[in-house]
Specification:
With about 200 residues, this protein is an alpha+beta fold. Helix content is about 55%, strand content about 10%. Helix 4 packs parallel to helix 6. The longest helix is centred in the middle third of the chain and has 27 residues. The radius of gyration is 17 Å and the shape is globular.
Length: about 200
Amino acid sequence: MKLYYAPRTRATRPRWLLEELGVPYELVRLDRAAGALRTPEHLARHPMGRVPVLEDGDARLFESAAICLWLAERFPEKGMLPPAGTPGRALTYQWLFFAMDELEPPVEALHGLLRPPEGERDAAAIEAQKARFLEGARVLDLALRDRPFLAGDAFGVADLVTGAVASWGKALVGGIDGMPALAAWLAGVKARPAWKRAIAD
């Protein structure tokens, strides 16, 4: 199993999951600054020249959430995905789609809007995207008030993917005041040893 990866990208998510699973894998680090994502070899793996890409036998996948779901299904004995046909599996799908459709778009927009020097930024657009992210964050906070994890009683792939996006968003908006359940859950997620290994570089 081989994961094509660059630090501080969405490729951290499947790397984190692989660390949680404890299965053997090869990590192929690609240097974005050196143009490694635009080579013909990598464009054959991912036509948009991005990471992550996972190669697992005959399967080749891109898109971080899809890779994480595949890996969780691939190793059911690791307990990262509730059984098919259960409410926990349904909630996993819900939160994966929520993370990709509701949380990540404003986070990605903020990432771009905050790149220019402070005096050249579009303040109104930044505030609009912060508000959009915080709206989604409040949904998470409400869901976590009566449960320890998003899809059941144990940490799973829904927490991993959603936690990675929410953590990125929290850093960009400057905090999540007034959301104690979300704050506690995120602190627990980021305290996991596998997370720390995944972001070591």
